[in-house]
User: Fold these one by one.
Assistant:
Number 1:
Amino acid sequence: MEGVLNFSYGKLFTSDTVLDNAYMPSKNFFVSDQIFVHFLQKEISKEAWAFMQPKLSRLGYKAASLLDHFSLSADKNPPFLKKRDAYGRTINEIVFHPDYKKLLQIAVESGMLSVKWDPELREEYKGYSNRLCFSLAFLYGMGESGVSCPLCMTDGVARVINSFADAEDRDRLMKHIYTNDVEQLFTGAMFLTEKSGGSDVGKNLVSAQRIDSSYYLLNGEKWFCSNANAEIKLVLARTNPDVKGTEGLSLFLVEKHKPDGQINPMDIIRLKDKLGTKSMASAEIILTDTFGKLIGKEGEGFKIMVEMINLSRLWNSVIAVSAFRRCLIEAYQFLSHRHSFGRRVLDHALVRNKLYDLCCRYTADFYLTWKAISFLDKADSGDASSGQVLRMITPMVKRQTAETAVYGIRECMELMGGMGYMEDTILPKFMRDTLVLPIWEGTSNMMVLDMLRTYNKNNGLIPLMENTHKHLILGNEYEKDKNRLTVLLSDMAELRSMDKDHMEINSEYIFKELTLFVQKGFLLRAEDSESTYWIGPALKYLNEKIYGRPSGTVVPPSTDEIIRMIGWGF
């Protein structure tokens, strides 16, 4: 009996750790990312690369070392509304955890906004501004997605102010956007939706009454105000109740203080209790004789606001791809150092096959997103044809990347088993945060309707398809692709003879397949001797999505192939 009781657990198990002793998390999300580094180095000028490389490396280090701590802390300690002070006076103060400001500080000091909006940098790196800004946003999004919303809103507000505000407001406000000092920063917000319509903005009810040549008094409730504490808010309101739909909406610049320095009245009813992006404050706000300054002309508000909405959709795409990348890397590193059934989990065929699927989806979405951003840079530089492509590809990339990220992060959690479900890892937070991406800036259904609207207006699909054809000719299946595209475009043309319901339903299936061809074209254009390790499998994957998997026995990808597809250096 003594021999039975006198045992040691150490003799029964060789290790009681989850991962082997060789595990080491990434030290720098920029330096480690072979796909991102390879793409960006080819995409921007040598001068822009030399300027950006140290910035990207610094932020990549912070994203891998500091952001997780601050992000999880701010997520678990969300902002709260201090409605009144001790003497009963309404103050409507939103109180943030200190780590929220640290997150914002890292973003501002990275140069994310200054590289795009500082006049000198904007001129020096003309033609690359959006790609430089988004390259930093991509790295930042690998650590924190909640604060990415205020950054997105601030970038969008800057775009509107820079293009449509008068010179005095532009000079006064823009310096607070491109500042590298978080204490001087003015963040932005877009107060768009209302209870009456949600995505149907044409049903908005908030009114605006003129009081002088520039200022109006705004009255009514805005139902979903993200970054509610912003210093600069762009608000849609109706100047003439008799003009229905979006044609009756005008855009107003609303600041925290009125022209005389008094507090501009905005009553915060409550903060939204959201599933994710908890670090950032979203609110329901009632405007009562709130001062707003007209931007542009009356009735042009929604048209101007679309500039901000479309930019926000690209932000949405970048954050989707970024979050997916981070979770994919977390799963990959875990599987590389987790052992089960006598070998590394990474070496199991079903695991490799799932990683193959996720890597291909990521690669296709990565290039789709960044090519859309390059079209934005070209359009901003005056290229009209890129502007035409951008109108179709923006809702396409927003829909595609948001849906992929939600799917991909869930799969990454499953690959990590119970560990992926634990709140002391980062995957649950990313899962919650990412679930909003198919909703924000227009739901997936709204993206289909936007693509359909662009198609019906001046046949807006043609410029994108012409661009896609030029890329597909580089592939071995060009004749096959050309024939299939001809059928799809013929099907699209037939939609015009259908009633509204049939048109919408059938366009969704067509646009989904067209997206695969657009992705394939971009990958063919980008493939070279180095990127073929991750682009080659993605092209095979897209072909199988379009034409079906060939019959016969499936050959699982090898471990080495998966490692090359991941494109990540520990």
Note: The chain is about 55% helix and 10% strand.
Number 2:
Amino acid sequence: MTDADIALSAEAWLAQDPDAETRAELTLLLAEAAGGNDTVTADEGVSRKIAARESLRDRLSTRLAFGTAGLRGEIAAGPNRMNRVVVSQAAAGLAAYLLEHRAASSSGAEDRAPSVVIGYDGRKNSAIFARDTAEIMAGVGIRAILFPRMLPTPLVAFAVRELKASAGVMVTASHNPPADNGYKVYLGDLNHGSQIVSPDDADISDHIDSVARDLSVLELPRGEFELAEESVIDAYIALTSSLVAAPDTQLKVVYTAMHGVGWETFASTLGAAGFDEPVIVAAQIKPDPDFPTVAFPNPEEPGALDLSYATAREANADLIIANDPDADRLAVAIPDASREEGYRRLTGNEVGSLLGWWAADRATREGKTTGALACSIVSSPALAAVAADYKLDFAWTLTGFKWVSRAPGLLFGFEEALGYLVNPETVRDKDGISAGLAFLSLASDLALAGKTIADHLDAFSLRFGHFASDQVSLRVTDISRISDIMSSLRATPPTNFGGIAVTSIDDLSAGFDGLAPADVLRLWLADGSRVMIRPSGTEPKLKIYLDTHCAEGTLAERQAVAQTSLAALRAGAEELVA
């Protein structure tokens, strides 16, 4: 775009932006780009002018892409940011898609007037974005049902099914940095409240682009929405709490909401299931869009659980349960005297493997002879071993719960990035509330038998083999470096990785074993290890997932063999991204 094009785009944006804050932000940038700041030195003025022009070009020359993850980005002015204009355009585009979808059907559920459930978390502007969505949906005759307050993401996925809604919208950026927000879309009817996948994402995106091209958001009609009744929330709590029953003797548990919206729902669900209220990390229990006690509001990040560890040491806790800010993910930590913190956070693969075992055993005890366990292709193969042992079906899926939740006959699904689905009959998305309850039930039952989660991990290794996993990431400033690495690996496939011979390579770029095409390479090694290489879908990163396995010898021997292989794979991964 030329400077003149950018100026015209900025003027068009300002003319329709209903938000005084982002209007002022863009106006200031335009002034600085024109060199209109008389309060700074000449050199500083030139520097600011250049920076302002670069910022304007980045904000205005493209749009924030809408895809299977919906929208996600920094809150700021311009079409390449999250703001009221972009959200209003997204709402209008989704509304047009739903009306077209309804009109294309002559009978059945889709013939009725469409309906949308809308939820939001505690991030900046989440409530505003949700209200804009509800009003715009209602303005074109869609029944818009807005949650009465900030609530966890899984409740939207639940409500789409509970209310037989056509779609759901959750305003959240999950565990992204504080400056971000996002827009997640679910579909009802035959999609059962799962997140959108192709081709629906492209269809919705086309409608959004049409709105952005042809209309000012100030021209969009707005209408009256309704508030979801408390009975919807109560139904989620009742169904989730019915998964388990609390034992007479209970564990001492510490809980953190990571400055998010999980506490109210988690506490109510625990109470309904008969569990005692946990010790809370008080500084993190209430929603706070600034996330003041963590550098990055993701329980996977170093330091994110430091306050939880301190609280647990003081309480002498048996277990730490942490939700991310929108409570769709779960982190767990257990006592570990060898660590300075006194506790160790389990990996997503460890939690997923134990919950998968719990789910398979539960299904067997309930007399279920069919069903499937599923996990994403970058998650540990451990779940496949559980499925084989219990003679259950198993499915690999592409990354993301939009795929995991769609596995046929699903009993349990997970992805290594702390996402777990223990109750697919209730929710078709990762759910940190129900997963936290299930893990607490597992830990409590083990305690009654005089065992710990650490003991259970050892028992897993003895029954199914010891699985060890690791991940190496390369963050880049030039995104082309990632595509160059992937192209080079395809052009000249490696014959060994970390000194271990490569026996075969699966290139998923054209689809593989029923999976949709994905930019992923899967390497199988001579010792049974596996390496997955893929670009991140949300960050400028190349990710390398490493998995090893040993099912022979004593527990110590299995652990030693797997860890030795893992160290070799890590060296190979670090060499690749050096």
Note: Residues 71-228 form a domain with the Alpha-D-Glucose-1,6-Bisphosphate; Chain A, domain 3 fold (CATH 3.40.120.10).
Number 3:
Amino acid sequence: MNRAQLCALPAQQLMPGFIRAIYCQDALSTLEEGSGSGDPLAGLTPEQLEYIRQLIIAIYEGRAVAASYNVFIVTIIAVFAVLHWREQKRDKLKWMAIQQAGAGRKTTECSQPDGSGTSTPSSSSTAILQTTHFKSPEDEVDVDLERLPLLPSSQSSNNHHPDRITNKLRSWLLYQPPPIPVINRVLPSNGTTLFILSWLALNIFIQFYHLPMKWSFFFIFADKAGFLFIVNLPLLYLLSAKNQPLRRLTGYSYEALNIFHRRVGEWMCFVAVNHFLSMLLYQFVIAEDWLLASQSPKAYFTHPLILLGIGAFVSYELLFFTSLGSFRQRWYELFLASHVVLQVAALGFLWGHFYTSRPYVVAALAIFLLDRLVWRMSIKRVAMEMDLTVLDGETYLVSGDWDVRPGANGVLAGWEPTDHVFLTVPALGRSHALQAHPFTIASAAPGKGVEGEEGKRHAWFSLLIRAQFGNFPGGFTRQLLEHAKTHKRVKVQLDGPYGSPHALSMLRASSNVVLVAGGSGIAVTFPLVWALLHEAASQPDSQEDEDEHKQVLSLRQQKKTRGRKVHMLWVTHSHWHQEWIPKEQLNELEAMGLDLVVPPPTMDAGRPDVRGIVGQWIQEAEGDTSVLVSGPDGLNRVVRNVAAGAVGQGKDVRIAVEKFGW
């Protein structure tokens, strides 16, 4: 129903009656010029007309304030973009410095006091598993013992030192609290929680800004809640898009932004409930009789505007419930299908329910169509035949290889470490031809559109997939596993790659790198380790010619990579899981300098001392350290909090968490 059709309705069909004045032409001019006999405002007293005038002014002011919401959002994004640009520039300079330091350490390594020509080795895997006493930052500083007082001074332990306060604050922001009891809901880091609470405070501020705190003006509260819903639409759809500009502007991966996407969706569902209940409360409890065209519930709920609003409300609430983690894990295929159908229906209902929402509906629909149809279906998607290899009773590989072709579509042009793709297997059935499931690329990354020697670079592509037996029998991963038991090859469609270079840039800029993988989290850490060590080994030192470079490459494969120490901890549940990555590839990485620790499987020896292992690596590091963890929620939280504790002690530590799961 458009604006002209609404204005053509009989006055008695508008509930409340003054909505006609709000929707049709200039309501204030109508009040000033007077009302005709057919106008719903006819016959009102001067006091009632003044009340409606104030009400309309307050409604317009409230909508103007809510419309400025996206100005705040764009400003916040711009600030994050500037900070990300500065961090990128700083990381690039540090990476170049590390490469130059690696070249400059050649002479130093060959002139050690023991004459061995090697640098001092780091702790072995056996030593790491032992109990370690961590030194504080003050223990590493040379101190003149003769000048120390016999009794400690209270001023010497001043907790208000600016550096200590900053470290404590950064540590608190990085810290991740335990899950909420009873419901066992996983909480993000304090910094993420603080940012989300600040965003919620902005929304609440807009909701109550200049709101008349009188029951007679309660309609403004209900109307503003509905308007707050629609101004969040573009942000919601932007965060859900795989090709969103936010990833490039802020450096955050799709997985990290998806946390914020879910909070935006939850808040919008809350304000939708608030708008719906508030309108009912105003219509049947608060509004005076002279404001209503009809008090009949049947007349109210059968009005076109109300029916369209109920349709939008039900659609978005169903979107919320089908997006819950418990629902996605059990019925992922239904989640995918319902998301597309319900989004289209909800936008259609919202278009007809509230004409002011239409610019926001158009923006949301444009983001959705550009991402899903124009970009993903045409530019990013490729079809090919892949090999299927069953590794154990619940894990299998989908793999293939090809020559990287710069300018080609999707993964044919290459990918970067931590990138993921959406996999579609039409051979599993008609319904699966419309489903796309996300998986991280578990093999070494050839780069995007980069030509190798003689103009060619070969890509070895593999997806490490574990069947989800908790799904209903028709689940995608379970059906693909059964298909892999009887078929060696299958035709697939790959949509991607998607990802963020932030993690690799952070690791490249650090002189000490710690990577922790839990189970199939090795699909994230292995490509990163491969990229870090191979790019260092293949980079010629300054003032070296090609003949010398071959000798240096051979030398580096027997010694620690110069300029950077790389540690990796891989926690597995079964010894079968350790066969997911070929032993030859792990041995090659160890020969190139990787300090690898693979504890006995947890089903045999219990959980390893992750806190002690990672803590010792961080404490022994000289200079800055970057930590990346990919695994289940419990492992991610332990590693994050170890890094947070080290920051509180004054260590220069950065951390990235790549959470896997549906």
Note: The CA atoms of residues 569 and 597 lie 5 Å apart.
Number 4:
Amino acid sequence: MKPFNYILFLFLCLSPLIASAQLTVSGKIVDGENDEPLLFAQVALFEAGGEETITYTQSDENGDFALGTESGTYDVKVFLIGYENKKIENLQINEDRNLGKITLTSEGKQLDEVVVQSNTIPMRTDVEGLVITPEQNLANVGGTLLDILRNTPSISVSDDGSISLRGSSGTNILINGRNSSLTQNLDQIPASAIEQIKVVNNPNARYDAEAEGGVINIILKRGEDMGTHGGAELTYGTRNRLNTGARFNHTTTKYNVYAGYNYRDWKGVSERSTFREVYEDNELLNQQGNNRDRRQNHNFNYGADYYFGKNILSYQGVYFTGKDSENNSLYSKMTDSETDDLLLQYVRQNNESETDDGYDNALIYERTFDDKNRELKISANNSYQNQYKTQNINIYRNTSEATPENLNGQERALTDEKRYTSVIQADYIHPVNERVKLEMGLKSTFRKFDNDYKYYQLSESENDFVENTDISNHFLYKDQIHAAYFIYSRSGEKWDISLGTRAEQTHVEGLLYNTNELNEQDYLNLFPSVQALYKLNEENSLKFTYSRRIDRPTAWRLNPFPDITDSLSVRRGNPNLQPEMINSLEVGHMINMEKASLTTNLFYRHVDGVLDYITLVEDGISYQQPANLNTGQAYGLEFIGMAELTDWWNINGSVSLFQSKVDGSNVGEEFVSKGFSWNSKITTDFTLPYAFTLQLVGDYESPEVEAQGRDFARYSMDATLLKKLMDNKLQLSLSVRDVFNTRNFGGYNQSNDFYQEFRAEWESRIALFSARYNF
């Protein structure tokens, strides 16, 4: 008999035995409350009494699962986030076994877990604020973290990337719940790397007290479903914009490893204009600027979790590196308002290049207990960011044309900026009984900001660049914040209440190397907080929150040396700034129906020593600098709604209306301002035939009150068409950002001495094609 025929004969003889040795364990996973099937429940088979995984799978859309194994005695464990784990011990498997329905019980929800949500809508509200799921908003495809925040209710993003929440620019931005240097450049973080964003409008004592507006916590993807999963995406847009990346994770009952990579090459053009009139000097200034820039970034995020007994040891890491280039030209003309005589004219060209790199590393230990409401978490993390910038400036004085023969001045500037943040933190939750729990924690934060700025001018006599030590500046800022907090929480059938307090000891040092001036501050503050929820019935609840917070001046605000990128409009800091103190109050109502929800919030904020930028004009030059004003107040009304109008149409959005008042009479009577503002963001999705989805996102922000004027209104609309293929594993989309080309930024400042207005427009209408594949 030939070898092949012998092997075939042997296989046919043994195949019944082989088939009989492979047995099937099957069943159905359902919700214990409503008997609905549960998708993606993890089912694992263990040796009886052991921790070694034999095999595992997950339930399908009908809740069904099936596992293949050999005969023996096993333990079956079922896991699903939001539900208590289920274990079936000493299961004898001698034949195919159908376990029937396995019911999972939803974990009891605590005060901060009471949410209003819909599975088809990319955000939900809770007692603290908003939870955003970026992937469910098509407008975020191919974008960055800044694009997500632009589409988030209550949040405004200015043209320079700064964030404000309910009209306040003082926000505490966290990465995975931790302070990080990476938050200094949010445009470095791709949208595809973000799992969730938590917006906490009125944070309790668990969070840092710093931030007038609240807390924005960015949760990066790490992978949780058992097995091997991943995906890749590619976005290509007008002006050869490119964004591509991939991610991967492998999870077992013993460990989880994950990694992601993103490359972004983004180009843009913009224009800016400034008009200023100085009344007493009869000066009229007109400036026109144009800019071209390109940003190339590599972003990596990676980590691992190891489970042993009731312990979890995790490592989370982020690394990025990038290169920016920018070319801008500024045309300036100053005339006499009465005679129209030319007083000053020049062109300033700036060719700028910048390299960035940074990392964030965190080691986290978590201890679980038999009581699932008891938790211990200890973490340590360190982050670093370095920016090295080179500016080569050509100046063409007494002309409006930037030609080689008109070149009569050259400057060069080198900026080496390093940021370091280290945090050690421990948090413990202890349930006293079923209704009462205690939370406590310790945290120490160490930050250092080192900015070394060298400024050179071309000397004709020496035919070389010579440093101007009057402008060069080396500034070192360091602070330490040591904190402890305690929270008492009690839950009941009708009332949930949480009372907390946080103590923070702050030490700040600011050193000017050029003058050897050292500015030190030490202060201790207490920050109480209250959160309460009253459940009217299953659908309706009322909430009340109060917190006292602080907004410490940043390193840039404290640095007194000027930024003279534009020699007629200079920005400088103020080393004598003091922190502002905030009292914030919020009352709200939440209603959650089967296919709709509405949250209504009334909020009030009072600020002592409010930090705001003021503009002064001296000798034809405007100086913008921060100052402590007397007080600031804001109160308003906010609506956040979500609804599935039909099977093919859903809508979500928000409207915020608020009155603001700034009292800067300690600086001057003209620094008193008040006014009404409102903004709205609306997202609507249409399910079309042939598995197409159309999404429209509209945004409007009314003029906003500043100490000396207003920001102008802003509005825009984005549109995205999505097609799903291959059982939803492949998604193709076409997006048009700012369809009507209306997104721009501007405002004015006014005093008894001058009026100044600026407008900025950039190429915001762009088209993007994206492809995403998940496995």
Note: The longest strand covers residues 342-368.
